[in-house]
Specification:
261 residues, alpha/beta, Rossmann fold, 7-stranded parallel β-sheet, 10 helices, 13% strand, globular, binds NADP nicotinamide-adenine-dinucleotide phosphate
Amino acid sequence: MQLNKARILLTGATGGLGRALAEQLAAGGAALLLSGRDTERLARVTTTGASEVVRLPARLDDPAELAALVEAARKFRLNALINNAGIGAFGLFAEQDWAAIERLLRADLETPLRLTHALLPWLLAQPAAAVVNIGSTFGSLPFPGFAAYSTAKAGLRGFSQALRRELADTSVAVLHVAPRAIATPFNSAAVDQLNLELGNHSDAPSAVARRIVRAFQRGGGECHPGFPERLFAWLNGVAPGLIDRALAGRLPIIKRHAAAP
Ligand SMILES: NC(=O)c1ccc[n+]([C@@H]2O[C@H](COP(=O)([O-])OP(=O)(O)OC[C@H]3O[C@@H](n4cnc5c(N)ncnc54)[C@H](OP(=O)(O)O)[C@@H]3O)[C@@H](O)[C@H]2O)c1
């Protein structure tokens, strides 16, 4: 989709990746409906070049606030939805609080599905439209210490692919993005330390946003920035036993960081 024709609802616009996306989409002349929880940070998101900007704070786990955002998106006459808001939770599954797991599943899986479901009738009536789901490498390379997160992102990947195939004869493109680690506040100090020790690359949010914006301009499909992560994700699909063995060797490191205060 051409940026100067795009009218985009971007969730998580106050976050590290969201701010970079907002800035680059705005620079291309898009109209933006920006959403996040933190009102002050939302007001500070840079949008130079945007053809129109609306900022609407919303807690997406609150049904009334989610419904208000859906209503605002229709009024805004959106033609693209970017499901970017999300939360993480690093830790051993048995030791995680069930309430935290539920919060994560709601934010990372249920909310993108709900927003898409509520806005799809509107999007289907547009001459050209898009749904963009921001997943993670862990959605195709499930990782110890991230069981609930990997589950949510694998679900989001499955949803994106099924929906893309279901909408193949419509004007709605579906793009699924699976970044590797990004240097944003999303990752706790323990995750940053873990990535450092495992040698996991961490990309700048602006670089990831550039890849996403390019993929958005091309249309739907899959965007997996990051090599060799893309190769390992593929390998996990064809020979998961190899990945099981490789990650078993790293388990003591992961457990040590998961236990860090
Ligand atoms: N950072 C990484 O290493 C990484 C790697 C791969 C994929 N991703 C994915 O990239 C996306 C963006 O992550 P990020 O790194 O930019 O994270 P971030 O800096 O922590 O930002 C997360 C965003 O989500 C919003 N959010 C969270 N829960 C919400 C809720 N209940 N209602 C409304 N908004 C909510 C936050 O709003 P407030 O700030 O206003 O509270 C914030 O705007 C996420 O889907 C994440 O899973 C991240």
